[in-house]
Structures are given as C-alpha cells and as structure tokens.
Amino acid sequence: MRILLVEDHPALKEMVSDHLARRGFAVDAVSRTDEACEALDTATYDAMVLDLGLPDGDGFSVLMKARTLTKGQLPILIVTARDAVGDRVRGLDAGADDYVVKPFDLVELESRIRAVLRRPGLRSNLLLSCGSLVFDTSRRSATIAGNPVDLTRREADLLDALLKAAGQVVIRDVLEERLYSFNEPVTPNALEATVSRLRRRLAGAGLRIETRRGIGYRLLSETDVPE
Q1: Helix 172-179 vs helix 190-201: crossing angle, to nearest 10
Q2: Which pTM was predicted?
Q3: Which string of DSSP letters, residue by residue, matches 159-211?
Q4: Residue 198 and residue 156: Cα distance in Å, rounded?
C-alpha cells in the first residue's frame, strides 16, 4: 500500500519512512504543505500520516485538501507534538481518523495505520475474488483454492489493482504509480518483471494476465472471451 508521510523533522521522517518501507509500504515522504498538496494532486494513496506543525503552513490545510480530493475516503492519521485536547478535537472533527502524540513507538504507529486502513466503509468489500483466487485487501494476502499464495509487496499491489479492474485494461502509468514511491528508481522492465512473477504465482487459479502492448495489462478468467 502507498502512504503519504508529511513530516518536517528530517530524522523522524527518515526513521518512519524506513520502518514503513521495511514493513511493506511504499512511502512518499514530504516536509511542507505545498509538497503534500502536490503529492495529493499527483498520486493516489491508501493512507496519509500527517504532522500538523509544518514550516510553510498549518497541516489542517493539507487535511482539508485530502478530504476534498478523496471525498473523505483517504484514511488520515495525525502525528504531532500538539497534545492539547482542543487540537485533538479539531483534528478529529476536521476528518482525521486517528491521532498520535509525539514521541511514539514505530510499531504502534504501524499498527494504527493498519487499523485505519480497516475502518468500516473504507472499502465496500475487503475480499476480492476471481476464478479460484481470493485476495484479502486488508491483510494483503491471497489464496488459490484455499491454499495460501506467497506474494511480495509489489506483487500484492499489482494483484490488488488488476482485481479491482478485472476485465478492464489498467494502463502502465497507473500500475507504476501504485507499485513505486516517488524516490524509488523504476527501470523500463521493472513492471514487466513483476507481472511475470505474478503470472507464475497465479498458476492454477483459472486466471490470466493479458498484455496490451504499449498500453497496460488486464486480468481475465480463463472463461472470458478476448475482445
């Protein structure tokens, strides 16, 4: 899953980014409100971790922009040194899903992120299925005919994107956005390599990943009639 981290303290930003990346998240880390707003305009995120005290403005402006752009569907966790009850209430009333006061434990922060990702109503259906494949979008885990499938983070993100658009072509740019953060180098064949690995993982599921050269990919069941 892709996370937008908005934190102006360099050491803390690096520490949180590194921890979440090791735990399987793609993280875009920025330090200013203008950078955060640009990121929200550019990419699609599964959650945002937001510091309220930013050098070029109030984090609440970022929160409100995120709420407007995503129609309230982006989970937002506020992380700040502000521990006054009034600030907490204002953050929650403005649409934040949770509130963590510095200093905090990285494991707890990760747990809270996963908790807001599971909030009721975030997804109409946490389980996606096609053929004999069942994919849990919350746990990022898959089974084929009840047997677990070992997926890397990028393979799970690719499968998620293809399943949600099953039968439709997902263009390359959209898939690369979902799989890679801004600071990750993307080689010309990186996406193809991930698709190839996922095809092998899905053997026996009654599915195929069709390549539309120069455009993107789509997931089909073996019973689907190609266009």
Answers
A1: 80
A2: 0.62
A3: HHHHHHTTTS-EEHHHHHHHH--TTS---TTHHHHHHHHHHHHTTTSSEEEEE
A4: 9
DSSP letter assigned to residue 95: T
Residue holding tokens 């789509």?
A: 218
Element (H or E) spanning 128, and its range?
strand 127-130
CB under 8 Å, gap of 24 or more: what pairs does 82-86 form? 82/52, 82/53
* pLDDT tens-digit profile, the chain (227 residues): 789 999 999 999 999 999 998 888 889 999 999 999 999 988 888 899 998 888 888 888 898 888 888 877 889 998 877 666 666 677 777 778 888 888 889 999 998 898 888 765 554 456 788 888 988 887 788 999 889 999 998 899 999 999 988 888 999 988 988 888 777 777 878 999 999 999 999 998 989 999 998 899 999 987 764 55
Strands 170-171 and 53-54, by their bridges, are unpaired
Report how far residue 190's alpha carbon sits from residue 193's, in angstroms, rounded to the nearest whole number.
5
